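Protocol step 4 of 6: structure prediction from sequence.
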Amino acid sequence: MAIFSAEEKLLLNKNKKAFTLAEVLITLGVIGIVAAMTLPTVIQNYQEKAAVTKLKKMYSTLQQAYLMNKALDEIKLGQTQATNAVAAAEVAAIFVPYLHISRDCGTDKPGCVYSGYYKAISGTDKNMYEYGGLAAYRVILNDGSSIWFRKTTGSGNPATIFYDINGENPPNVHGKDLFRFEVVNDRILPEGMEGTNNPFDSTCSPTGSGYGCTAWVIQQENFEYLKCSGLKLNGPKKKCN
């Protein structure tokens, strides 16, 4: 082990080089620019993956609840075809016992759903689902999301389920944070699939309503349809050019 005198140590320290203040500031500036360019993309990708996960988890929960009620012979969807609060409550009775609920607004209390107009992807106003609007049974879940149930006329499509992954928080847009499921031919289907009322190809694009986007998110696990038109759920075009 080398032993240096005090004079030698002082000489060695003088010969050591360090970054100047200007060099440090330039480096920090470059890091800041790179972060500003990449951080929004990172955040967007994270939010997209979180939304996909929540939607797929809810789909699984709804399927299990429906199959459990079917096995117990407790499903009552066939008893009425009216689109009203009573029918909505019948639909909700199938699924609510299997959900983790923080607030139950039923069909006659406000506060569980965004009170304004939900918009289409195109930006136009579409629907109000709060109490006083369309007849629906509404609840808020423990994670802050909202879900509500409606009964539609006709035995082929007896129920529609709406799921807002972040509750009353924005953007409150079909296909971005609001997604739909249907009970079709004794199955729970993500809206947009063949057999549902709103096919993906005609409703899910930057200029569409967004009603039929649920099937794409569950199958493709992304929101590519927000970037371009012409994507095909059951065709070769799955990405924008």
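Step 5 (inspection) to follow. The beta strands are 101-106, 118-119, 125-127, 137-141, 146-151, 159-164, 178-184, 187-190.
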